[in-house]
Amino acid sequence: MTNLPADLKYAPTHEWVSVEEDQIVRVGITDFAQQQLGDLVYIQLPEMDRTLSENEQCAVVESVKTASDLFSPVSGKVVAINSAIVDEPEKVNENAFGTWLFCIKADDLSGLDKLMSADEYQQMIDE
Asked: Could you tell me whether strands 24-29 and 40-44 are parallel, antiparallel, or unpaired per DSSP bridges?
């Protein structure tokens, strides 16, 4: 059982989402995802000001075992990237829910309705 923050939303592709003010959506990967991947060695983030569509592949995390694509939970423009983790990807392994990857200014927050609650995500990963 993973300790999942109840204030976040979760994608089936293992991204977590936090909704900030002004329709800013902060995105990271879940603790379950980083455990499955193992020690992260490389993170490729989306470019600033890139316009993303909902469910568009936009970033990559690589570990010693494998690489995994990350997907945008909403449509909008990338307004911030956590460039510090590019040099220190292990920070995601140390604190997945405390380490965000990028932020999107959402065109519309309705896409978030398709995401899971902490309980729903826990049920999915337990199966």
From this structure: unpaired
